[in-house]
């Protein structure tokens, strides 16, 4: 199975942009559904957006629609999350995760990358 490693987080000011990357090892990246989750301090982890292996995208948080864009490059085994117009409430650890198509839960996780947005 793949292993995942996120990068691209940092400390930014409100209104800035970041691009998070999730690099996957293994040759079967293209067969996995991929998702970005985030966990803010003191809160439960929440699903932000999913990019399935067949190419469909679904955003799960109204607060990120229009500001967050998910993409994937199967040739580079990499998942991306472009985040624009960052807000302090976007502060969280961002995780990428993977699952095989019909599996109900995400079972492969990266270590996370911290995004901190100051006002």
Describe the largest sheet.
7 strands, mixed
pLDDT under 50 segments (min length 5)? none
Share of residues in strands: over 45%
* Count of distinct strands: 11
Which structural category do the helix and sheet elements fall into?
mainly beta
Proportion of residues in helical segments: under 10%
Oligomer: single chain
Provide an overview of this structure.
There is one protein chain. Strand 4 (32-39) and strand 5 form a beta hairpin. The mean pLDDT is 95. The chain has strands at residues 4-7, 10-13, 18-24, 32-39, 46-51, 57-59, 68-73, 78-83, 92-100, 108-109, 113-118. The protein is globular and about 40 Å long. 0% of the residues lie in helices and 51% in strands. It is built from no helices and eleven strands. Strands 2, 4, 5, 6, 9, 10 and 11 form a seven-stranded mixed beta sheet that branches. By secondary structure, the protein is mainly beta.
